[in-house]
């Protein structure tokens, strides 16, 4: 029994791939997010008449915002609603015609329940016990999205308009 070994012919030097000397462009990186962890909401606190001018220009503090958010969740969902994690990201002070705006982050599975609770809630606005001129307050859901950058800067549709 004889074994013959077949040797493969050596590749010529010109067939080898040469390393590029200069980089022409940066590679494009793409990714897909199917199940985002968070949902971002832009809310506006509105006052129902009668309301005094001093109430309108008073800034919204984080403690009052948290109290109003918890009251809405408690009224709509009960004790399980108050267990929903809410992160207050930013509170915009009222300026001119712009009302009191707040940005929050909630877990994505709870987003629809939070939107339903906040949009249907109307609470008493008198925090100091003085019922004159305070009126009632309510949350208005201005925007909802899975990515904060898209909510802040818009949808990007203006890029495709000729």
From TrEMBL:
GO terms for molecular function: ribonuclease MRP activity; ribonuclease P activity. Residues 38-121 form the Ribonucleases P/MRP subunit Pop8-like domain. It comes from the Eukaryota. Residues 1-29 are annotated as: Disordered. It holds the Pfam family Pop8. InterPro entries: Pop8, Pop8-like_dom. GO terms for cellular component: nucleolar ribonuclease P complex; ribonuclease MRP complex. One of its GO terms (biological process) is tRNA processing. This is Ribonucleases P/MRP subunit Pop8-like domain-containing protein.
